[in-house]
Structure formats: C-alpha cells, structure tokens
Amino acid sequence: MSSIPTLASLVKDGKVQNDFIMFEDERPKVAYNQFSNVIPVISLDGIEDDTPGGQREVIRNQIAKACEEWGLFQVVDHGVDPKLVHDMATLSREFFALPDEEKLRFDMSGGKKGGFIVSSHIQNEVVANWRELVTFILYPIKERDYSRWPDKPKEWRAVTELYTENMMGLGTQLLGVLSEAMGLERQAMTKACKELTQRMVVNFYPKCPEPSLAIGLKRHTDPGTITLLLQDQVGGLQTTKDGGENWITVQPIEGAFVVNLGDHAEYLSNGRFKKAEHQALVNYDHNRLSIATFINPDQEAIVYPLKIEEGDEAILEEPIAFGEMYKRHFVKHLERGKAKKLAKENKLSKEEVEKMLQNPVKNVKSLQELLA
Ligand SMILES: O=C(O)CCC(=O)C(=O)O
Ligand SMILES: [Fe+2]
After folding, report:
1. Which listed ligand is nearest to 237 at the C-alpha?
2. Which residue ranges in the chain fall short of pLDDT 70?
3. Which of 74, 117, 131, 217, when mutated, tests ligand 1's pocket best, judged by the most ligand atoms within 8 Å of its CB?
4. Domain boundaries, the chain
5. Locate the Fe2OG dioxygenase domain: which residues (predicted)?
6. How far apart are CA 236 and CA 33, in angstroms?
7. Relative to the CA of 227, which ligand 1 atom is closest?
8. Which CATH number applies to 31-371?
9. For 7, 161, 260, 360, which has the most beta carbons within 10 A of its beta carbon?
C-alpha cells in the first residue's frame, strides 16, 4: 500500500478508496464508543507484597482469571509516571500533525525495519487499514536504529527512550505474575523468551469519512508474548472471545494500559491463557492515537508449553523457533485476506475457503519479503 501517500490527502474526497472497503461480514457491528465494562480493570497497587494471602496473590488471581477468559485486561496504579505517559502521547500526536513530506522522510516501504507508513508494515494486505503508523525496534538496544526514529518533535527520542524502559519494566513484572500463576518461578516466561525484545507501533487513525465501511486495524492477534497498549479517550479498540461473533469495545481509562496476550503466551501456557483477538475501529468525528508496545521473545527462542495441566495435551505438535512462528503468523494473516477476497469474487466456495484457512502455510517466504 506504499503507493498511497498519506491518509490526510485522501480525506478530502469524502469517500474512501476501494482499497479500504472491508468485506461485508467484517464491517464494524458495535460502535466505536459503545463501551463495555466486562474487561477487568486491575490495580497493581501492592504487587510487591508477596506475603501469603497478600496483595500479590490477589492481583495474580485477578490477572490469571482475565487471561483465562479474555487474554486482555487493563492495569491501573502501574507505577509509570503519568507525565511520561502524557508526554509520549502528546509528542506522538505532534509527529502525525507534521506535513506529509516530513513524515515521509521516514518512509519505511521497501523492506526497511522501521519508520513511517500508511495502512500497514505488512506487505500485500488485501484490504488496507485506515491508519498511519510509526514503528521501530527498541530492544535489544544494539538493534535500535535511530535513523528510523522521528527526529521531530525534538523531545521525541528522549521521551521514547524513557517510556520504552518503563514498558520493559511493566512487561517483565506482568510476565512474572503470569509465570507464578502457572505455578512456576517468577522468571519462567522471560527465560523462555531467551532475551526479551521490544518493538513499538504508534498508530494514528485519522477521522474517516466512511467509518462503517473501513477499519483502522483489521482483526488480528499479536504474534508475541504480551502487548502494552496506551489508547486515548476516543475509543475504538474492540476484542472478541468467540471468533468474531460478538465484539466488545474496551472502555478507555485515562492513564491505564490495556494488556493483551499474544500467540506466544498462549503457547507457553498451553492454551490456558488466551491470545486476544482484537481490532481497531475508526470514526467520523475524531482522530485517534494508540501506542502499542510489543514484548516478544528472541527470534531463536524455542516455543513450547511451559506447563501442561494434567489430562491436557500439548497444543503444539513440536517445538518451533519463535522466528518461524512469527513468519507463519503473518503468512496465515495474509492468506486469510486472500481467501476472503476470492470468496467475495465467488471463485471459492465456503468449504474451499475453510480448507485454505486451515492449511495456509505453504511456500513460507522470508520475513523480510513479508514486510512492506
Ligand atoms: O489501536 C488499537 O487500539 C489497537 C492497536 C493494535 O492492536 C496493534 O497495533 O497491534
Ligand atoms: Fe494488536
């Protein structure tokens, strides 16, 4: 989708281009601002109190329950400085408000590992997303490429460096709690990651002239271990636990982080904790900003269940390197889009689509080829 300059230049038209029109059955069913309160909001206050029956145990039980049911919850009293969080969001908004040519200085199309792009950093998506984004690698630190980070506003870099450090701290803390909830030592999940890596995607969803036809970010799961999402007060994040039958819109809470589990966490827990399927809607009246921090394993980390409950079978047929799992995740995502397109054009029957979706991983390309 790199042929699209930026979304700002499309908004004038009053209609979205065909590229952005969603398949009918995937168009938004529940409004972006019809908030639900079913997603647990968990205070981390007292998490250090590790005495028997103490606050850590209470928090652990709440988090485990949320992950068994949704794979998604919100945290408050998480200890991250509210000013830092506020600055991170404000500077991000300022970046997206820059003229197109400033943003396009960081154009990441053509396989670059970071920078600015419209719609998606994954190539060949069948339906485009109504979003602009900036993405970059934060950990391991030696892989940071500052030439791919915005250099305006000028405070961006220092604030992002502090923010990412805080996200690593919070993410590690939560993985510790999840490990304990599996009856394992606190470091079990981080050790299974070999070395924790981190990527950030700052999402900007401009107002959309046809929000009932387009989507900000199509339904997906995150491939990694755990995601910490900061969203503004506009609303638009939705999740489903029944494969898209019912969607609920997550209530924005000032200063909270939405935590969601990715594929890797589901595998490590052998399916006890769920990966959260989610999507982001756009709307007619407001721009929306969200900042996703993805905490992932090293590409070489071997993925296998850390704990298999008695009587359960392993959900993975064989151990697999995270790098390979990551690649398959995106191939599957793209194949799904292609199958839906063929179905729409009536070139595939429903059964054929199902078959394609069940066995999509043929001719796995290199990850580099998959990125825009
Ligand atoms: O914008 C949102 O609320 C969701 C973002 C997201 O899911 C992602 O970047 O992976
Ligand atoms: Fe996501």
Report:
1. 1
2. 1-5, 11-13, 123-124, 346-347, 350, 356-372
3. 217
4. 31-371
5. 196-297
6. 7
7. 10
8. 2.60.120.330
9. 260
Q: Which atom of ligand 1 lies closest to the CA of 288?
A: 1
18-22 long-range contacts, CB within 8 A, separation 24+: 19/127, 19/128, 20/127, 20/128, 20/129, 20/130, 20/210, 20/213, 20/214, 21/127, 21/213, 21/214, 22/127, 22/213, 22/214, 22/215, 22/218
C-beta of 231 in contact with ligand 1 (< 6 A): yes
**From residue 28, how far is each of 20, 46, 70, 71, 154 by CA, in Å?**
13, 39, 20, 21, 37
Distance 216 CA to ligand 1 centre (A): 9
pLDDT tens readout for residues 92-103: 999 999 998 999
Burial 9-36 (b: 16+ CB within 10 A, else e): ebeeeeebeebbbbeeeeebeeebbeee
Joined tokens for residue 53 = 């029956």
Residues in a beta bridge with 290:
203, 231
Q: In angstroms, rounded to a whole number, what is the distance separating the alpha carbons of residues 301 and 308?
A: 19
Write the DSSP assignment of 245-305 as a string of letters: SS-EEEPP-TT-EEEEE-HHHHHHTTTSSPPPEEEE---SS--EEEEEEEEE--TTPEE--
pLDDT of residue 344: 75
Q: Whose CA is nearest to atom 6 of ligand 1?
A: 292
Buried b (16+ CB within 10 A) or exposed e, 148-166: bbbeebeebeebbeebbeb
| Residue-level pLDDT at 58 | 98
Both tokens assigned to 135: 């993405």
Core vs surface per residue 73-93: b (16+ CB within 10 A) or e: bbbeebebeeeebebbbebbe
Q: How far apart are CA 324 and CA 366, in angstroms?
A: 9
* Residue found under tokens 């930026």: 6
289 lines ligand 1 (CB under 6 A): no
Q: What was the pLDDT predicted at 4?
A: 52
Quickly tell me which residue has 């993975």 as its tokens: 316
What pLDDT was estimated at residue 301?
97
Model-level pTM? 0.92
